[in-house]
Amino acid sequence: MRDLSRLFSDRAKKFRKSEIRELLKVTESPDIISFAGGLPNPATFPVKELQDISSYVLKNHGKEALQYGTTEGYKELRRVLAERAYKDGIDATEENVLITGGSQQALDIIGKIFLEPGDTAIVGLPSYLGGLNAFRSYECNMVGIPLDKDGIIVDILEEKIKELLKKEVIPKFIYVIPTFQNPAGVVLSEKRRKKLLDIAKEYDLLIIEDDPYSKLRYNGESVKPIKSFDDEGYVLYMSTFSKILSPGFRLAWVIGDEDIIKKMVIAKQAMDLCTNTFTQHLAYEFIRRGSLDLHILKIIEIYKPKRDIMIKSVEEHFPEGYSCNRPEGGMFAWVTLPEHIDTEKMFIEAIKEKVAYVHGKAFHVDGSGGNTMRLNFSYPSNEQIEEGIKRLAKVIEKEMKKK
Questions:
Q1: 303: Cα within 13 Å, side-chain hemisphere
Q2: Residue by residue, what is the 3-state secondary structure of 254-277?
Q3: Cis ω before 183 (30° cut-off from 0)
Q4: CA 281, CA 106: separation in Å to the nearest integer?
Q5: Domain boundaries, the chain
Q6: For the chain, how are helix, strand and coil distributed in percent, rounded to 5?
Q7: Which of 189, 201, 263, 396 is the most buried (most CB within 10 A)?
Q8: How many other C-beta atoms can be found within 10 angstroms of the C-beta atom of residue 115?
Q9: Burial of 230 by CB count in 10 Å (0-12 exposed, 13-18 middle, 19+ buried)?
């Protein structure tokens, strides 16, 4: 077959595969216990209720739900999302809301409208791989700022911004996942959220606030979104139905300044014209019936014990020399091993023991994090979590002995 790769654009030639998506192919074997994906547990999907809602929507709104929709999204869904955001302190109307085909599309649109080749974006060390890949595809440079238990370290962030400005490099935006960060699981403190916003104002930068997990809180007190402190349009807020209803819906939303939303709408029109109209109607009806908040409580009832089982199993079986956070919510635990252990190389040994994870280097734009790993606890069964941690502990113990 003829090789037409010479026709690819320079941009396309620089595309990278998603390491997580590639890992999922390796872990498809049924005898492998996988902590690699960021998958919701299918037991949380409200299948029966969505069957009833689907019938209702088709019977009463079928002609509209099966038709093309506006690029902005179904008006009633945008309205209720703005109302729900208001309860979290975000002042928005439906005109500030854009419905997208999952958060990944939103991240891609953000890259498309803000980034030129050679531009600079600021991200966390570590940070969400999907976001990093979306921004990389627009040929930008990414500068990583380390995290601690309270999230991105804003003092280091400000120093880095000053350093960049001295070199006449003006960052386009700061990308953060402030609540139950993917992959590290940490929560940006309220003090730092306010400081981060102050920094954005001081240096006239945009904050991209990615918030897929905040409703999945198992203990501790909620922290308001960064967007709730923003009264000048410096924060572009994102959230999704993927973790609180169904990833198969491919529904997410963005809340921001009307001028930014309008520009995102134009960019989206070149992608897909409109987001899935039928699933937008289903999501709206699910909210209208008062089902979403009750459903989130059911998800928490399933995930909290899984989190507890994973942390307890790690404490019981991992050899000395590791550290592991105890996330107050979300879907991930973050493990740091002794510096001489390379979790990317160790993955091969883990697969031999029929257990999988995501190595931490994938989440670091500076190539660091080689001794870290992300473990997902939402998807595997409780029994698989216990057995998988035992298997992983054996692998880690062997690696430690090699030194």
A1: 32
A2: EECCHHHHHHHHHHHHCCCCCCCH
A3: yes
A4: 20
A5: 5-46+293-402, 67-290
A6: 50, 15, 35
A7: 396
A8: 21
A9: buried
**Tens of pLDDT, residues 376-398:** 999 999 999 999 999 999 999 99
Block means of pLDDT (10 residues each) for the chain, length 403 residues?
Answer: 71 67 65 93 97 98 97 98 97 97 98 97 97 96 97 98 97 98 97 98 97 97 97 97 98 97 97 96 98 98 98 97 96 97 95 95 95 97 98 95 77
pLDDT at 151 (0 to 100): 97
CB of 153 closer than 8 Å to CB of 33: no
CA of 289: how far to CAs of 64, 276, 286, 296, in Å?
Answer: 19, 21, 6, 14
Q: Copy the structure tokens of residue 161.
A: 């911004």
Per the CB < 8 A criterion, the answer to whether 334 and 187 are in contact is no
Specify the pLDDT at position 10.
75
- How wide is the angle at C-alpha 267 spanned by C-alphas 170 and 22, nearest 5°? 80
Threshold 0.90, pTM exceeds: yes
Distance CA 139, CA 134 (A): 10
Q: Give the mean pLDDT of the chain.
A: 95
Q: Would you state the CATH architecture of domain 67-290?
A: 3-Layer(aba) Sandwich (3.40)
User: Side by side, which strands form the sheet with 120-125?
Assistant: 97-100, 252-255, 235-240, 206-210, 173-176, 120-125, 141-148, 151-152
The closest alpha carbon to 100, from 289, 255, 225, belongs to 255
In contact, 351 and 58? CB cutoff 8 Å: no
